[in-house]
Amino acid sequence: LATGPVKSPPVTVDGFVQEFLSELNYGQGVKLSQSTINDQYLALARTVRSYLMAAWLETGHRRRKNPTKMVAYLSAEYLLGRQLGNALLSTNLISIAEQAMHECGIDIAELRAQEIEPGLGNGGLGRLAACFVDSLATMDVPTIGYGIRYEYGIFRQSFEDGRQVEQPDPWLRLGSPWEFPHPERAVTVGFGGQTEESADEEGRNRCRWTPERQVRGVPYHYMVPGYRNGVVNTLRLWSAEAHEGFDLQVFNSGDYARATQAQTVAENISKVLYPDDSTPQGKELRLQQQYFFVACSLHDFIENTLPGDFDLQNLPKRIIFQLNDTHPVIAVPELMRLLVDEKGFDWDEAWAITQQCFAYTCHTLLPEALEVWPVELLGRLLPRHLEIIYRINDDFLAQVREAFPGDEWRVRRMSIIAEHPQRSVRMAFLATVAAVKVNGVAALHSQLLRDNVLPDFAELWPEKFTNVTNGITPRRFVRLANRRLSGLVTEALGTEEWVTDLDLLRGLEPLADDAAFREQFRQVKAANKNRLALVLEGRDGLVLEQDHLIDVMVKRLHEYKRQSLKLLHVVSLYEGVRSGRLPIERVTPRTVLFGAKAAPGYHLAKETIALINHVAAVVNEDPIMQGRLKVLFPANYNVNLAEKIIPAADLSEQISLAGKEASGTGNMKFALNGALTIGTDDGANVEIRQLVGDDNFFLFGLSEPEVEALRKEGYVPSSYYEQDPVLRATLDLIGSGHFTNGSRHSAAAVVDNLLHHDPFMALADFQAYLAAQDRVDEAYADQDAWSRMAILNVARCGFFSSDRSMRDYLDKIWHA
Ligand code: 26Q
Questions:
Q1: Span 254-277, mean pLDDT?
Q2: SS3 for 154-168, per residue?
Q3: Above 70 in pLDDT, residue 1?
Q4: Res. 169: pLDDT tops 70
């Protein structure tokens, strides 16, 4: 019995009740009659988890028995969202669990609401990693996700006087039923210290790194269930602890207080997620985090996942490390160090192996978002790695000189080491040099990556560059988040196969012309609006007008994403009515819904949040608008709220300046949930528009080449202010202090920046944006035509399943 296969509890309501009560009694140590909601939630989570256990163990067993090439996804972020719903979905236990809870006198919805989501990511990049591991499990691809178990995830946002206030996110506080700590598999990681050269037995020069201090990495395992396929992959997140013997001397000398301080220093490494999502600051702790999780992961894979007698010469046959942006790139010198210093490989042999083991995904186009680490800092923290990086660079630059003799400018441009403004390591260059493939995340982005960000590298190695357009998991973002639409789709297609084969949505196309179907589709949207209204009322005390056009802009707050342009639209409507330019009957009843967190140190972003809240307060209350324009800004936008907002949206705002948004993934979620997009020709919007057709997409604004041309010619934002009376009246109203209690100062940061700098050309696109919004109003007035367009968006966006993204990675990059 002890060695036989692990069995799942019986898949019946009774079986579920028994397992639940047993978890409550023996796991949680309480009787049902005495149990709290939290007891019940934890017992329910462990019950569902017990149904996944046999598949998890079996998947591991199968992978060990039949070793193939694996994918190791290295990501500093996984924005997972709540686990319970997804686990219930993947095990097909939703209805059994509902009935079982009902029999116990429990409302399962209340338990589901108890779960705190693991917010171990900032935004798009972290959520992408979560979608990818979901798809890989559903496609039965042997995968390990490696990352960091932050004790505090992305901060909780609240508003005080409209201004963002950040609170810590102690997500583990009420228990963590989804994780499995494995302290016995802990790994030791070194930091600081010195390197020295010495000869080995064969007289070859060998380097030894003697770290100054050591930290213990403890893995916590999370299940990554595939969709009803008996596969459960593993996500392995590392938590930092003090190493035994950590400052033992201090302790022995009787300085107990200092010894515990040392423990704090070690634990700090995985304490908190950095909440900056695009302007990397060269913070030492951040580099420690990066090296910590990467060193743990490489060690774990080589020493614990590969068989004991494995010949590392064959490493590329067994693994591909996919680098989620540059955050894990320190893995490159770490693998070199392991091979050369610890395993005795020659440099060239080691480099040949290393170069086949990594692939790099870039997620940005903004030069200021490219990570660089000062040589001084990197050398202090990781002296051996810095030496290795220098050597990689020397060899690489020799190759450049050979390919382009006499072109020293090029050599300087391509060096992994930047000399100005301070000597630093360019992590994107290191990644590009080491990787088998470099990919962007949407067609336009990959093109611009080749042309603008890494042109010298693309010239040297054209075949290295490729595109994989992002995707989203249809399980979480359609099937779970939009149960009603899913039901309608399944009924219409006569199958639920679309959940794992999203191209089947094409079958809905003919139904766009079916009046009865369109009516059902509208009823789904109405019901989703109703659900959202209840959520917003309960969590924020906000009132959602359910008969309004729901116009949504939810994403991190960034200047390039242009929340301020959306705000200008709102104010222009309000100003139009106030000034008599716009008759109130011509204003489409509309609710503009914002959700956005700003990095705590990003001043302009925080001012923009405050201004949105101030505008909302005035516009919502002014009787002149007759309730036809509302601005709602629920605080603390997160995955859970996204799952409620997106299915209720009519209009999706994707209005970044062309050439700045690498891909976007929210854009895909909205389209697949039957919202229409108003958007620029940027990121994956380009592909969405190509697929749904121009008639079913509200395109506006400068194209990327036009942006570049305008910049060259000299962009003067104030000239738009001077020439456009509507823009002028709009900005003047904000600048007058109308929304900020008469204080002109409060709005000044945003307005002055738009008038005098406007690096993302919001003013240049203002008129086109308003014209596109007029087209939206016109289209929305014909509800039947609108529904038709929305249905076609759903039907034609199957391409944006992350299952397809994974197929592309497999075909173009991993060959696993
Ligand atoms: C780096 C160093 C130090 C501190 C923080 C960071 C850091 C953290 C997060 C830098 C960047 C990020 C996140 C970037 C991100 O989310 N990018 C988005 O990635 C999505 C998935 O590919 C794209 O859809 C978005 O277009 C892109 O903005």
A1: 89
A2: CCEEEEECCEEEEEC
A3: no
A4: yes
169 Cα to the center of ligand 1, angstroms: 20
Cβ atoms of 570 and 773 closer than 8 Å? no
Question: Residue 361: phi, psi to the nearest 5?
Answer: -105, 125
Q: Residue 124 C-alpha to ligand 1 middle, in angstroms?
A: 6
Give the whole-angstrom CA distance, residue 739 versus residue 109. 39
Whether the per-residue pLDDT at 247 is higher than 70: the answer is: no
Q: Which residue has the tokens 């969202």?
A: 81
Distant-in-sequence, close-in-space partners of 570: CB < 8 Å, separation ≥ 6: 592, 615, 619, 629, 631
CA distances from 64 to 47, 142, 232, 236, 306 (A): 27, 10, 14, 17, 9
Catalytic, out of 46, 243, 464, 556: 556
CA-atom Rg of the chain in angstroms: 27
Q: 776 near 548, Cβ under 8 Å?
A: no
Using CA atoms of 379, 380, 383, 388 in order, give the dihedral in degrees to the nearest 10: -20
Which residue do the tokens 């004991």 mark? 308
Is 561 tagged catalytic? yes
Is the pLDDT at 312 greater than 80? The verdict is yes
- State the catalytic residue, choosing from 561, 590, 614, 738: 561
Which residues touch 238 (CB under 8 Å, ≥6 apart)? 146, 147, 148, 149, 187, 217, 218, 219, 220, 270, 292, 293, 296, 297
Span 577-613, pLDDT tens digits: 999 999 999 999 999 999 999 999 999 999 999 999 9
Q: How confident is the model at residue 289 (pLDDT cuts 50, 70, 90)?
A: very high
Task: Say how many Å lie between the CA of residue 758 and the centre of ligand 1.
Answer: 22
Q: Under CATH, what is the fold of the domain 67-82+117-468?
A: Rossmann fold (3.40.50)
Residue 425 beta carbon below 6 angstroms from any ligand 1 atom: no
**Residue showing tokens 């994107």:** 428
The overall average pLDDT reported for the chain is 96
Q: Are 21 and 40 in contact (CB under 8 A)?
A: no
pLDDT tens for 653-679 read 999 999 999 999 999 999 999 999 999
Domain 67-82+117-468 matches domain 482-807 at the CATH topology level: yes
Average pLDDT for 764-793: 98
Angstrom distances, CA of residue 617 to CA of 146, 353, 611, 620, 630: 44, 60, 10, 6, 9
The distance between the two most distant Cα atoms of the chain, rounded to a whole number of Å, is: 90
Average pLDDT over residues 37-54: 98
Is the CB–ligand 1 distance for residue 128 below 6 Å?
A: yes
pLDDT value for 315: 98
pLDDT surpasses 60 at 790: yes
How are the residues of the chain apportioned to helix, strand and coil, as percentages rounded to the nearest 5?
55, 15, 30
Domain ranges of the chain: 1-66+83-116, 67-82+117-468, 482-807
Cβ of residue 662 lying under 6 Å from some atom of ligand 1: yes
In angstroms, the Cα distances linking 429 to 414, 425, 440, 442, 528 are 7, 8, 14, 20, 46
- The answer to whether residue 408 scores a pLDDT higher than 90 is yes
Determine whether domain 482-807 maps to CATH 3.30.70.260: no
- Among this protein's residues, is 555 annotated catalytic? yes
In angstroms, the CA 370 to CA 281 distance is 10
| 283 annotated active-site | no
* Count of helices and strands (H, E) across the chain: 33, 25
How many CB atoms are closer than 10 A to CB 585? 7
Residue 412, pLDDT above cutoff 80 = yes
Q: How confident is the model at residue 2 (pLDDT cuts 50, 70, 90)?
A: low
The pLDDT of residue 74: 99
Whole-angstrom Cα distance, residue 342 to residue 71?
Answer: 24
What band does 202 get if pLDDT is binned at 50, 70 and 90?
confident
Question: Once rounded to an integer, what is the mean pLDDT over residues 440-450?
Answer: 98
Residue 333 backbone dihedrals phi, psi, to 5 degrees: -65, -25
